[in-house]
């Protein structure tokens, strides 16, 4: 399948719905699909926003399953993309997750 922003956004939405329904495995699969598509697209503000959101959600899933190294890696990527994208709500979420992570390390 050819990557597109709309397909990646649909996968991200599907992941949110699966997570809300308690299907973390399906949510992770949808997020991996979104990540794969987004990484093959040219950089843009929207792509970076979606990448940030995808990485931040992958961070939450990895953290919940005890995969601390993977969780930290996704958090760092999510924060980085949130900063470059400039989307206010995504940047705020990234900062909240970063603060929570930092507080948990002490």
What's this entry about, in short?
With 106 residues, the chain is an all-alpha fold.
Identify the CATH architecture.
Alpha Horseshoe
Q: How is the CATH topology named?
A: Serine Threonine Protein Phosphatase 5, Tetratricopeptide repeat
Order of helices and strands: HHHHH
Report the biggest beta sheet as strand number plus sense, adding barrel if it closes: none
What count of domains describes the coordinates?
1
Q: How much β-strand is present in the residues?
A: under 5%
How far apart, in Å, are the first and last alpha carbons? Answer: 44 Å
Number of strands: 0
Structural class: mainly alpha
What is the count of helical runs? 5
Tell me the overall shape. globular
Mean pLDDT: 94
The CATH first-level class comes to Mainly Alpha
Stretches where pLDDT falls below 50 for ≥5 residues?
Answer: none
Radius of gyration: 13 Å
Helix content: over 70%
């Amino acid at each position: 399948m050819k990557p597109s922003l709309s397909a990646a956004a649909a996968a991200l939405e599907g992941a949110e719905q699966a997570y809300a329904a308690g299907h973390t495995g399906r949510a992770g699969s949808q997020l991996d699909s979104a990540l794969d598509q987004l990484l093959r697209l040219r950089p843009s503000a929207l792509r970076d926003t979606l990448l940030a959101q995808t990485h931040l959600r992958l961070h939450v899933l990895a953290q919940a399953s005890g995969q601390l190294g993977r969780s930290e890696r996704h958090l760092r990527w999510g924060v980085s993309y949130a900063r470059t994208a400039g989307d206010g709500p995504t940047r705020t979420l990234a900062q909240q997750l970063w603060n929570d992570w930092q507080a948990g390390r002490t």
